[in-house]
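Quality-control log, excerpt.
Job 1 of 2 completed; input and output follow.
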Amino acid sequence: MTIKEIYEPIREHLEEFDIYFKQKLNSNVSLISLIISYLTKKKGKQVRPAVVFLSAAACGEINERTYNGAAMVEMLHIATLIHDDVVDEADKRRGMASINAAWNNKIAVLIGDFLLAKGMLSAIDNSEFNFLKATSNAVRRMSEGELLQIHNSRKHNIELDVYFKIISNKTGSLLATCCEIGAISTNEDLTIQSNFKEFGENLGIAFQIKDDILDYQGKSEILGKPIGNDIKEKKITLPLIYSLSKSDKSEKKKIISLIKDGNLKRKDLNFIKDFVIKSGGMDYSEKIAKEYSIKAISYIENIPDSIYKQSLINFANFVIERNI
């Protein structure tokens, strides 16, 4: 199943949201308007607003609150990407120059702050304090996850529990917020809201594990980043963590030494990728991603059947089967 087929039940809402979102970002400052126009020129995969709309529709009727919630989450998402690019000194995003590369770091940080402020004000103006709490909690967790990853990258060796805490905070928290806000916008049942939050959390973890797998086997032109990029940035992810745990001391020392020294050549990247494959790191990671996908689905099994619920289930399956 393709992402387009998964989105089909809410396709019209996503098209309307595209216009709604651009209107939400209006500013009287010409530089901000120029950068916002640049940011929205190339449409992404719309994962976050799609998950908000599907969650909302699975729980009730999509309404103005749903659109506002989806806009908040998308502002948060774009702001964090811009700030991440500054932190990572990245010069590309979705095949285009990043904001920090096209302008500079100072402007990029301020645009990120502008988006975060717009999102918070949107919640306050509409008295959506549950939305504000959910998104603020996501910002806190994402920041903690990023800092935890930076701190542990210096160790060049990471424990499984730390890895899962990082990806739960960095990726799980945002998709959890999407699903929770979607449910809140159309349903007052606290148990349903909590279940959708858990669905999103586990979906996000599965999504990130698959991303980490694709860093070893995907195609750079599809992913939008070079293959082996995580290794180059000294990010130790699940496929490598598992493989290192199964290796002997000399093998482990050699791999960590290569990563620690940096300036990895193509032959070094190929050596590490071959090591991960032979050690079973890829197969293990695929298995764990599948487990989280199944766990995610279990949280929404008891809601009434609908095309929206089925799309969420299809999306949970797509997340671990994709090659993008």
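Job 2 of 2 completed; input and output follow.
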Amino acid sequence: MVRRVLFGLLALAPLTIALHYLVHPPETFEFVLAALSLIPLAWLIGEATEHAAEHTGPGIGGFLNATFGNAPELIIALIAVNEGLTEVVRGSLTGSVIGNLLLVLGAALVAGGRGRLDRFSSFLSFGLIAFAILLFLIPSVPGWDGDPDTDELAQVSAAISIVLLIVYVGVTWYSLRRHHTLHVASDEEIKGWSLRAALGVLAVATVATAFVAEILVGSLEVFAEKAGLSEFFVAAVVVAIVGNAAEHGGAVVVAYRGKIALAGEIALASAAQVAVFLIPAVALLSWLIDPLSLSFRPVEIAALAGSVVFATIVLFSGHSSRARGALLLAAYGAVVVAFFLAGDR
């Protein structure tokens, strides 16, 4: 029954896009409709990822979900760069890493309960994020007492972005080879969608998600003004949650079905991919529009570092449980409060 309802709600995405370009309804109405449209799209990406993982294993399946799920965030960030909303870009990217580490993973563990995570892969993701945070300090610290958007800081950001991308390529190549070696598809596993069909659905759903997310972000300014929220809070919390809708739905759906390892890979691979691929990619691509510096605020650096340390401690044993998931969700609540109190720079 639920699957039929979600399948029917997929019609909301083309409806939202058509209304936006043809009718131009009030922005508050667009915000609500776009948010509702992302729910069935997230479910569809979760479904397609689960079928793809039956052919590839949870590690590669998590990588696929992270890749397709983060595509809308890249588009959203570049649009914001084009509009000169540098604080929105930085806030949404740091909020995305934290959201995956605490909110998405926490919700997945609550939905899935007891199980085992791939401990090696989990700590590899934690290590990548920690390494990225250390590099982010280089352009961030000088911006705490001055202009965070200087050309010099943008050039430094470009240099560390290249380093992060090189590390990302090397670690991803090793990780995918490892997961391919560990996974052997069974006869039962290949009875679902074909790998080509699953990847095709992922691609279509990602494109639709990108369009809907763009519409939602375009209406966020009016929403933020009426709600009395700072632009930083809206970017780091609301935009980050919207951009991560695919991971939210995908991780929770597969965790609820008992595939804890895949759910963990979705959340952690996405967090690591944002830190060492998406953020540097945005920084480098911004040079085609308006150079962006990775000069994050102290509250962002502190929240990133605290989230990595806390998640590492909670998941140190490699086991999952609803209690551990609740701890991660509570930590995310604390970060949300901190972002709310921080206000704009």
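Post-run check on job 2. Residues 144 and 297 are 7 Å apart (CA to CA).
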